[in-house]
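Hi V.,

You were right to ask for the full record rather than a summary. Here it is.
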Amino acid sequence: MYTRDGYVVVPDVLDPALIEQIHEETAGICRGMGSDDIRDFLCIHFPHKMSALMREVGAHPDVVKVLTEVIGPNVKMMQSMLFIKAEGKPGQAWHQDEAHIPTRDRSLTAAWLALDDATVDNGCLWVLPGSHRTGILFPTRDQDDPRFDCTKEAFGFPDEDAVPVEVPAGAAVIFNGYLLHRSLPNKSNSFRRALVNHYMSAESLLPWFPPTAKEPMALLDHRDIVMVAGVDPYAYKGTTDVMEPHVRPDGDGGCVK
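Predicted structure:
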């Protein structure tokens, strides 16, 4: 199914006790970012930098098992995002993750972990099955659709075959970096929280960010990574610690996934 459709749902990755731990940790992370009300936050980037639990979940064996099947034996994680999509929050227009995280070998893979039941009503993911197969990155444009945040949308393709990916809390949606996906607003009266981690082959370099004093070769190979499986063939380069946890803005400048 993954090869054909570009995504697969893995049930029961997170058990109820672990989900409760993550919810408690989410509240603690939000307090650390300056508020006792998690509704003040849309998304916190790089929570694994703040939380040993989030880092452990990023290497969850049930997720890693699938990653090694679709990517290969050596897998690195470069990003985590904790989405707190409270009632009334918008979604994000069609996009492809590879457009934002450029890999050299098309190995980019997301693990979207449901921390609440994700439904059409509360803004679950929608995908275009098979849209990853061409390896095309579609053009993007500004949009002002009130259903979505301010981010640009991918266009140039029919979307009538889009399907919602409704999953229960604890399930993981594993999907390809070229897969077109979006989410719609949360119209329910509860949260639609999710922890989303991005991975790629450790054999591939990651030309992600401009050089900095801490990471002068970042444009060639970003090295703020976490190995989750196998070995790092570039271990001789060492790793860096340059990405800092930050809050994704809400409101007109907000970006939601």
